[in-house]
Amino acid sequence: MRGIAIRQNLTDEWKERGIKEHRDYAILTAEISKEEKPETFTENKKVAQRGGKVAGNALKETEKELGRDVSSDKNFLDNEGQLKIDE
2 and 77 in contact (C-beta within 8 Å)? Predict the structure, then answer.
């Protein structure tokens, strides 16, 4: 469920930034989906660490741009993948 929510947020963001054609969504999604096809645990670990670093940097940059935290104890996905917003 979490992957679906993340994908929806991403496509919503693209839509807000002017992406309208199905073909464009497909191209952008394909770019994200490219894999190196690691074959050993060590190779998989390196790819996972690099992906985590990229995601962490993207989060920090987004929060800096917004001037607030993206995720907090007031908005989060619970263990079942349901969005919780406490006011």
Answer: yes
